[in-house]
Amino acid sequence: MREFPWRRWLAVLICVAVLLVGVPLAVALVGDLGALLLLVGVGGFALGRATAPRPLPAAPRKKGKG
User: Fold this and answer.
1) pLDDT on residue 41
2) Which of 20, 46, 53, 57 is the most buried (most CB within 10 A)?
3) Where does the sequence pass through the membrane (predicted)?
């Protein structure tokens, strides 16, 4: 959980970059409908990856006698 804040701001920065650069570029390359379909697909993939459950790390074993 210690690394969470910088990951959040990295995700925000990527989203802003996609909105400012990716959307106009996609519209110029494939038109309005193509850009909409492309960005919905990419956005859905990114949202799915970001919200996918992650396995918890194994708890460290305690060193004891015996």
Assistant:
1) 92
2) 46
3) 9-27
Q: What is the pLDDT of residues 20-57, one digit of tens each?
A: 998 899 999 999 999 999 989 988 898 888 788 878 88
CA angle 17-21-26, nearest 5°?
A: 125
Cα distance between residue 58 and residue 54, in whole Å: 12
- Per the CB < 8 A criterion, the answer to whether 39 and 23 are in contact is yes
- Give alpha helix (H) positions in the chain: 4-17, 23-51
- Predicted confidence at residue 65, as pLDDT, reads 66
CA pseudo-torsion sign 20, 23, 29, 31: negative
DSSP code of 52?
S
Question: Where exactly are the structural domains of the chain?
Answer: 17-51
